[in-house]
Amino acid sequence: MLKLFTVLLTGILLAAGAENISMEFTQDFDGWGNWKSEHSMVQFLHDPALGRKAPGSLSILLIPGHPEGKSVCFTRHFEVQPGQTYTGLVYVKASGIADQANISFGFQGQDAKKNFLGSRVQSTRMSGRDSRSGEWKRLVYTIRIPDTGKWQQVGYLLCTMGINHTDKGQIWFDDFQFFPGP
Predict the structure, then answer these.
(1) CA 60 from chain center: how many Å?
(2) What DSSP string runs through 58-115?
(3) How far lies 158's CA from each of 27, 88, 93, 110, in Å?
(4) Is 8 helix (H, G, I), strand (E, B) or coil?
């Protein structure tokens, strides 16, 4: 009976668009793309050896000569609905980045054709200074999507995990989650 209830509940949640997404990056990029500012000098890597709980993570390596003010990030789209709340979380580890660096984890609204809505990026940040310990740190962001104005047209959130304001170092991302609700 419990198994039948679990199957029915899972079906209801999936039909309602509710989906819990977890990525540990053990094998590859798990569908993540990337973006970089013009003249950026970076490598976007899958690190098969380093991970928070198990081997595997995504990494951005800043190559000598990378301009300090340039932004770089991993990107991925997630389907969403107006009037809903979603939470994303990811663990971050950094090495050799500048104190003034900004490690960011954010979301930006897009319509069903993945055109930007013209909304600002909503994000949380951690400074390079705060990442000095060499330990994995958690970034969490909860976004309530309005069901009015330009947000009525939302079909996707573009998630970004990145860094700017540093010309050196390396950053890793692991154990990503995205789910409905707070």
Answers:
(1) 13
(2) EEEEEPTT--TT--EEEEEEEE--TT-EEEEEEEEEEES--TT-EEEEEEEEEETTS-
(3) 22, 12, 22, 7
(4) helix
Three-state DSSP class for 55? coil
pLDDT, block means (10 residues), the chain with 182 residues? 34 49 93 96 97 97 94 98 97 96 97 95 96 93 96 97 97 98 86
Strand partners, 162: 73, 104
Question: Would you state the pLDDT for residue 1?
Answer: 41
pTM: 0.88
**Cα–Cα distance for residue pair 81/84, rounded to 1 Å:** 6
Please tell me the predicted confidence (pLDDT) of residue 11: 34
Q: Tell me how far apart the alpha carbons of residues 150 and 117 are, in angstroms, rounded to a whole number.
A: 6
Burial of 77 (0-12, 13-18, 19+ CB in 10 A): middle
Q: Give the C-alpha distances (Å, rounded to integers) separating 167 from 12, 51, 100, 138, 171.
A: 48, 24, 10, 23, 12
| Spatial CA neighbour of 58 closest among 162, 179, 164 | 162
Residue 18 has what pLDDT? 53
pLDDT of residue 15: 35
